Amino acid sequence: MYDAIKEIKEINLIIEKLKTDYSAVAQRNIELMRKLYESKITEIKNQINRPKGIFESNIDYKNRVDKFNNKLSMINSELNSEINSIKKSTIDELNIQKNSLLNQRAKMENQVFPIGIADVSFKFGFYDAEKEQFGISFIVKLNKKIIHAFAFLPVTRDKAAQYYQNPVLLIPDVNLKLNKEAKFIPHKFSFLGPENEEYVCTNIVFGIKGTLKSVNGYLDRFLFFDNHTMYDRRTNLFWPYCIILMIRIGMKRKNIVMNIQAVVIQIGDYLKFMS
Fold first, then answer.
1. Do 103 and 117 fall into the same domain?
2. Domain residues for 177?
3. What is this structure's pTM?
4. Could you tell me if residue 222 is inside a domain?
């Protein structure tokens, strides 16, 4: 597992270095190309900016300016085409170098890492009798890391009380994967029941501590935990929650009346007021 993490990180460093190196090469080649066209562009601009000659009619002057404006447009188009060609060839060469590395990284990402039963603990929280599912909290102990996770576990009402009172009847089967940033992500969290029936977790979220107390909001958006943490399923954010404040300010002067309803939500070090 940790060899895979190390390998993904090393691959990412190599890819970033390749991007930096190829970008620098592309910029140098583009600057060289600009310099090649610089004298031509300057010469054409001088022709455009040359004042009307005393022996030059208005029509001749206009034709001259139009002619060199067309030439300037053509040569700028040619320069842009050369620059785009440099960029494309650079990207193509970079992709050739990257592809083998990305394929190698994808193999690491596709690996599944089963976690031993001894390294997994879980606790049932709120049971939704209508949807027939538990909110369940996990602690996954790895060699160098502890992962806190939350998920929903579908269990029918006729079995829910039995498992809630005797969670040892369920054998956890936790499997992790690695993403492209070498971070652990959930693959499959499930349980095996006493009759070899499988219960598969849904909506697995890493980083949430505590046990689910209640679910509120439209489409069950907000999950409230016993450690005073609230999780917003729509934004994937969670934070400590505070009491709702109701403030009314009356201002009779100039017939102004202001009603302010504020909800104070602590997000990290911030206080957000919604009125």
1. no
2. 113-215
3. 0.67
4. no
